Write a sequence for this structure.
């Protein structure tokens, strides 16, 4: 028990630069309190004290603003930053070193019994306000952008943005550390418009209708303006080499 408590506190230091000392983390982090309350409620649940489990869960929901169903399965290294408004459903599964921000929902889309909530694999980061709905799987090392609505499974090492969520696969896998770079989000709509403009330029050139003197360019971090050649998604998946992710 004490080993797990130490690991829970260490996960806060690993992912929140605002954390200053263990005493502050122990007493002033509602995400941590919600996790500990879930563990108590989960113990009652798996030992078939269902009512006590639900009452314990409801107590910590009122104290922290975070609702975790006692039947959910949560592994080690789980961290909820800020946390207000987080909802984790009954059949949700969360593997090691997953990070959630405030307003996240791991919800169901069916009234049938059985698996109906998401599974988040190792190292997944879910941005503020994101909704992950249904019995889908979010692959290892993936990042869900703020306010995205995800309704289909996501491959490993991907980034998801938009409503409904657009999946962008990275060209190369991320390192093992959590991917907290919320400022690096792909613009799939912008790339689609650029792609259409380029195709239009080519069609007009072939028909001798128009010859643009100013082709579509994209500025990179070095101040240069390389010619961007994005492409349409392949079976609903974008490819990471076209984006800063």
């Amino acid at each position: 028990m004490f080993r797990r408590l130490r690991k829970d506190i260490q996960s806060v230091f690993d992912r929140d630069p605002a954390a200053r000392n263990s005493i502050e983390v122990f007493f002033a982090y509602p995400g941590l309190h919600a996790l500990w309350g879930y563990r108590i409620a989960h113990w009652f649940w798996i030992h078939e004290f269902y009512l006590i489990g639900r009452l314990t869960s409801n107590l910590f929901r009122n104290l922290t603003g975070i609702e975790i169903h006692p039947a959910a399965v949560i592994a080690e290294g789980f961290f909820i930053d800020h946390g207000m408004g987080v909802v984790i459903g009954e059949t949700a599964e969360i593997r090691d070193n997953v990070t959630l921000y405030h307003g996240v929902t791991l919800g169901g889309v069916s009234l049938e019994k059985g698996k109906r909530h998401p599974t988040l694999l190792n190292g997944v980061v879910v941005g503020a306000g994101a909704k992950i709905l249904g019995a889908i799987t979010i692959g290892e090392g993936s990042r869900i952008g703020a306010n995205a609505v995800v309704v289909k499974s996501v491959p490993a090492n991907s980034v998801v943005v938009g409503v409904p969520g657009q999946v962008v696969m990275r060209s190369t896998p991320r390192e093992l550390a959590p991917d907290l770079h919320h400022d690096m989000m792909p613009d799939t709509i912008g790339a689609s418009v650029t792609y259409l403009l380029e195709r239009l330029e080519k069609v007009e050139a072939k028909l001798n209708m128009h010859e643009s003197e100013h082709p579509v360019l994209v500025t990179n971090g070095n101040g240069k303006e390389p010619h961007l050649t994005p492409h349409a998604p392949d079976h609903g998946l974008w490819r990471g080499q076209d984006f800063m992710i």
